[in-house]
Give the backbone structure.
Amino acid sequence: MNRIPLASVARFVVIAILVVFAGFPVYWMASTALNVSSQLYNTGQVPWPQLGNLPGLIHELGQVPLLRWLVNAGVIAAGTSVLSLLLGSVMGYALSRFRFHGRGAIGFLLFMTQVIPEALIVVPLYAMFIVLGLLNSLEGLVLANVGFSMPVTAFILKNAMDAVPHEIEESALIDNCPRIGILTMVILPLIAPSVAAAAVIGFFAGWNEFLFAVTFLGDPKLWPTSVGLASFIGQYEVPLSAVMGSALVFSLPAIVFFLLVQRRIVAGLTAGAVKG
Amino acid sequence: MTGTAGHQTVTPGRGRRRTVHLERWLPYAFVALPFGYLVLFMFWPLTDQMLMSFADTKLMNPNAGKFIGLDNYRRLVADPQFYTTLRITIVYTVLAVLFGVGLGVIAAFAIDRPFRGRAAVRAVLLFGWAVPGVAAALIWLWIFNLPSGVLNDITQAMGLGRLRWTNSLGLALPSILIVTVWQVSPFVMLVVLAALQSVPEEVREAARIDGADALNVFRNVTLPHILPTLQLVSLLIAVWSIRRFDVIYLLTGGGPIGSTSTLVVELRQTAFEDFNLGMASAYGAVGLVLALLVALVHFLFERHRARVMSR
């Protein structure tokens, strides 16, 4: 009789510890953002969020170029997402619907892109972008990001397409509808939830990216939020509440969307490794 | 559309042959653009990186470099930092897998069975995974802060004093590992949860009726069922650890004295702060070998499992 309550108490203690470890840093980010900076260093941090300081925080955020960083990050993210979808859907369709020489090799190479560290191609891309005039441009950054995000998109869409019965497109083929029309007008609408998930994953790959952005974008006007936030480190003119407030604004969309599409992200990231 | 259909009825034979001919090349027409893209922006740069490791390329003019054979590699193996870097990369990767997978599995088992508020708990447990790396680095830098960080308030209250988390030789790597585990364990939890939910309840029930206790059910039913998942997720965490740049670079910058400098951090610093592209490329070659090794281990496991399952 005694064992059952003991086991469940132990379980809830474990859950409580996990919740504190996982949740505290995000809570602390919000709490710090709502502190007055002089408090943070002198009288000590007030641990609970002081919502009364929200207008002050908004004023402070107006003093840093957060809006421009967010717009740049949004442009990079949207570009990465759209180009990944365009290329990834065609690739996914080919892998799902055709049996051809080299199919296995292409699957393997797509898997390899997920193993290669970004840092391994940062120097040659830098050299290539000098020649192509893509250094210090958001377009160049998108082109670099897509190499890593497109294979994920292709795997997600291929898996979704595998579940679409062939009969559906065979009737369209008999009507002499071109293949690319079948893909865009028949298949993709049928797997719309997977397309949406792939779009979100591509978007946040671009939104979060740091290594390429900090290396290729020397001009502060072009910085996305990741590079802008990193420039706060070791610099003491910007109040800490503004730093944490910016980090919070940067994180919130990612938290919301990751929680919404979590299952599909997991399926997508593991698919390439299982079937590649 | 009607035009081509009419054409087909007039000369059925020719039309069919043309279709067959087209069908054979069709897959390549589809693959050409996305694959060409990968060659241009991924595989060619990778090849170029390997070529650069045999040249004396400078950052000021990275498209001109003279062939110098194995000189970069000779300098690499003579540099003590190289061995530190290699050791740090492997230690960091192994520990990230061990603790990340360990904590993720514990979390998955803790919230596997329903309880009130599970949805909210599950959402909170995913925070570390959802927060962008740069934001995570900023939060944790503040938590680790020496004079005002909350973690040092706690250690001081415990009588341990205030600790130099991110910039002391003993604590820099553990600090990075804490942040890494915070980031990767939620992903492990999600994947393991999905696997746990696919364990057939009847089998567990049957084992229990046959007199198996909780530990036995776990060892003989649950564990074999989730083992392939654990293997896959360990591979992914290993790969991500070898790739991870932002958190390490921002938390410690690879320091103090190179004690947290993994291959990718060392490569980026050597190239863009020491302007030594040749040495950086040699690091890149080592990194590629490491990544390929992890992939190879995964493929051998997968093939082994496919064989066992087809038996």
DSSP finds 14 helices and no strands in chain B. The radius of gyration of chain B is 26 Å. Residues 1-15 of chain B have pLDDT under 50 and may be disordered. The first helix of chain B runs from residue 2 to 10.
